[in-house]
Amino acid sequence: MAFYITRRILVAVPTILALIVFSFIIMYLAPGSPFAGERPLPEATLANIEALYGLNRPFYEQVFRYVWNIVVHFDFGPSLVYRDRSVSEIIAQGFPVTLTYGFLSFIVAVSVGVVLGVVAALRQNSWLDYLAVGVSIGAQVLPNFVMAPILVLTFTLWLGWLPGGGWQGGELPYLILPVIALSTSFMASIARITRSSMLEVLNADFIFTVRAKGLPKRRWVLRHALKPAMLPVISYLGPTFVGLITGSVVIDIYFSTGGIGQYFVNAAINRDYSLIMGITILTGTLTVVFNLLVDIAYAWIDPRIRY
Amino acid sequence: MNLIQRTNFEFSARDEDHRSLWQDALIRFRRNRAASASVLVLALIAIYSIFGPTLSGWTTEEIDWSVIGSVETMGKPSGIHYFGTDELGRDLFTRTAIGTRISLIVGLIGALIAVFVGTLYGAIAGYFGGKLDNVMMRFVDVAMSIPYMFVLILMLVVFGRSIVLLFIGIGLVSWLDMARIVRGQTLSIRTREFVENAVVSGVLPFFIILRHIVPNLLGIVIVYATLLVPNIILYESFISFLGLGVQEPNTSLGALISSGSSQMQYGTLWQLAFPLFFFVITLFGFFFAGDGMRDALDPKDRL
Amino acid sequence: MNLLDIRNLQVVFKTTTKPVHAVNGVSFHLDVGEILGVVGESGSGKSQMTFAMVGLHSKNAKVSGQALFEGVDLLELNEGELERIRATQIAMIFQNPMTALNPYLRISDQMAEILTFHQGMLKSQALMHCIHMLDVVQIPDAKNRLRMYPHEFSGGMRQRVLIAMALLCQPRILIADEPTTALDVTVQAQIVELLKNIRQEFGTAIILITHDLGLVAGMTDRIVVMYGGQVMESGTTESIFSSPEHPYTTALLDAVPRLDRDSDSLSVIAGDPLDVRDRWKGCPFEPRCEYHLPMCLQTRPPIETANGRIRACHVDRNLIGK
After folding, report:
1. Are C38 and C163 within one domain?
2. Which single residue of A60, A187, A209, B97 has CA 20 to 30 Å from B274?
């Protein structure tokens, strides 16, 4: 197990470094200077700024310095648009917001999805099963950017029950719609995956053995079937995480939460390279780390791949 | 895996024995009502997206000055504007048709690029195996653990937002799954006799892959390509929803949904409803058609 | 009183088309400490019959008749009572040991849970008991192997684990459903020896379900021959082998390769195994039977009992095998 984890970490670290270098190269290759706005700056001013940001140094030196600053100081450099703030400061401000509802959405998607899937599998062909299947098929075509307007239309504009935007330090009413909008499609996918893998496991020979041993249903479902049925779900957690992170951009914008996604899109529109790179690298690193955890969880459940 | 005798006896129809794989698949597909209906719906959507602008008599950019200022009342769906107008007085029937068209094109071209790259990559890795396979699949693993949407947006920002880059970019981030599936299939095809015959008779690997491996991958590639189209439409809509994708005066379903949802508090719900409707049924159409094809071509591997 | 008395057992599956009669009025009995062979080709309903006895039939099956275990009709019991019977009185082992164990749990957990659940033992006490049982089924180094996962065992070893697991609560009956089919020949012999020893040591009655006549010849006391969900013939092993009285039995015996006969002509039973969907008014073996009479198509053969033997055939017993 220790060997397995070590090997995974040895893959994860270069992946992160590669991501940093890759982003930097894309930016380096970018045509034109980020400071080439609508009004051309005087030559001397431009040179000054470039020197300030280190853009006049040789390529390898820039790469090295960039990577070094990120890895050692968690410093992504100054924002090119918000001139008085560093990328790290912006991340520190926006990220906790995104993390809060992102984490909640993750919990909701996984717990509701798994429960729905298991119940549907255990009561195959009952109305509950059909409901679960129906919901999970329907939610496939309801990604966050479709859910968000529908939810706001229903619960804010028509019913007036919940605020359709804002954050207020993460008070519950402000969390509900973003979390539902973000988690629904993933909840549905997880429910579908859980249902089909649960059905497969329930048909497995070893479940029959457990039944022949005279153990009651509650016990063979919880103790014997649930764990293996979770394996495909665990594999899907990686893509779920990526999807939630990506979707949070829409949520941040649509609900004006002040989260990191809003900065990301603004940075994209204003060509704030260092901010956009900072956020890409941060989310990339989180994804790689999360996938590492998923791999470990997988190995923990399935004894056959530990070695 | 099944030693405990199953009690749901499955009966095979004997009269299907002598038909070819593809004929069989077609028959199975036709029998699947949801899938057949989906194909019909998709065809209707395609017709609408091609002829919609002609039917309405309005162009995308044309502004109906008579509705400006009172879009909530004047811009409603009517005999003049079948789907109403947007907040700038532009005909929504035309714009939804154009948006659907762009989304479909992005989906199809993106899927084509992904299929092309993924099939070649996967077939090469699977065919040669060994170290090369290891390195190539390791790269896929690594690439898969990167939030591609951010990288795509980064690329769009750096190289400028253009629809061509959008096509290529989405295609290039979507081939990874395809490569994995194709590699797995290739590994099993490689051991079959006709491939070994070709190897023994000295055919170059390039031609073996092209003539013997790829044709045998066709079924699975078609299935996953069909399922890839809606996903790519989703990506594109996502990016356009953020305002980073297709640019005015062009539009896509994502952009239309975005502007529709930003206007909905003013009571112009049709602006959200029509693009959303086409978005949802297009995706449903592709998902069901893809599922139907999977069942038809690969009946063992049902989810 | 017999340990187990099966009377007119029927298992009918509801399917989307017509009902499938997998077991069609089977009767037999089992004595204390006896090894009974149930022989028949696949689809003859032998497994479904035993599953139905202990309530393990699938949801779309309808079971009728009687299955008296020590005078109690198992078919009348509720799920909780059946679970108790399965855990403590009637244990089962299956054909494929490779898939019959849960790959995600340690052997110790899979074994001990029966004892902790049904006998209220403490975990430590249960584990001691498990080690003892693994010793009984001759698994070396039982103490350490108990902590392992199924994939660390070979097929034969897994079958031993499954046998040990089945014996934990000292059941009165062990149902062994094709226990050696998936194993290597040498391992098969070891498992057969083991089953015989277990009968000796614990007095467990064994129902051995198999299609392998060689296997029953070596270990059973009595045999029930089944075809198409019905009993064709039954009697002591010796009598069945020396003087089969049913055309199906003779055909089965002829299909076994033997060294003492000219092996050029290994015979096969003509025709396809019966499709259980078709319910016959007459004898299920009629289409493949070389002795068949016109009446075989019309009426089901009556069950004759004579000299401790049972047979169901219209053909005169003296004509068969001659």
Report:
1. no
2. A187
ipTM, 2 decimals?
Answer: 0.84
Give the closest residue to A188 by CA, choosing from A255, A238, A82, A115.
A115
Are A302 and C103 within 8 A, CB to CB?
A: yes
Residue owning tokens 């204003």: A270
Q: Which chains touch C (3 or more CB pairs under 8 A)?
A: A, B
Residue C26 has φ and ψ, to the nearest 5°, of -100, 135
The reply to whether CATH 3.20.20.70 applies to domain A93-301 is: no
Q: What is the DSSP code string of B66-99?
A: TTTT-HHHHTSS-SSSTT-B-TTSBBHHHHHHHH
C227 lies in the same domain as C104: no
Q: Which of A145, A205, A291 sits opposite B145 (nearest CB)?
A: A291
Question: The pTM is what?
Answer: 0.81
Domain hosting residue C105, numbered range: 100-170
C82 and C104 co-located in one domain: no
A-contacting chains (≥3 CB pairs under 8 Å): B, C
Kindly list the domain boundaries of chain A, sorted by start residue. 93-301
Nearest residue in chain C measured CA to CA from B10: C15
Which residues neighbour A243 within 8 Å (Cβ) at sequence distance 6 or greater? A185, A186
* CA nearest to C46 within chain B: B5
Instruction: Using alpha carbons, list the distances in angstroms from residue B281 to A44, B205, B262.
Output: 56, 43, 22
How remote is the C-alpha of B296 from its chain's centroid? 19
Per the structure, how many domains does chain C have? 2
- Look at B1 and C276 and tell me if their CB atoms are within 8 Å: no
Contact A206 C54 (CB under 8 A): no
Residue numbers in B near A196 (CB within 8 A): 303
- Domain stops at, among C138, C170, C202: C170
DSSP A68-117: HHHHHH----B-SSSTTSBHHHHHHHHHHHHHHHHHHHHHHHHHHHHHHH
Which residues of chain C neighbour B10 with C-beta distances below 8 Å?
none
Q: At what angle do helices B253-263 and B214-241 cross, to 10 degrees?
A: 30
C1: tokens are: 């009183």
Q: Which residue has the tokens 């989310």?
A: A283
Q: Which residues contact A8 (CB under 8 A, 6 or more apart)?
A: A292, A295, A296
Q: What is the pLDDT of residues C234-282, one digit of tens each?
A: 999 988 888 888 888 888 888 776 666 555 555 667 666 655 545 557 7
Q: A291: closest CA among A6, A4, A9?
A: A9
> Which residues are bridge partners to C35 per DSSP?
C206
The 10s digit of each residue's pLDDT in B20-58 is 677 777 888 888 888 888 899 999 999 988 888 888 777
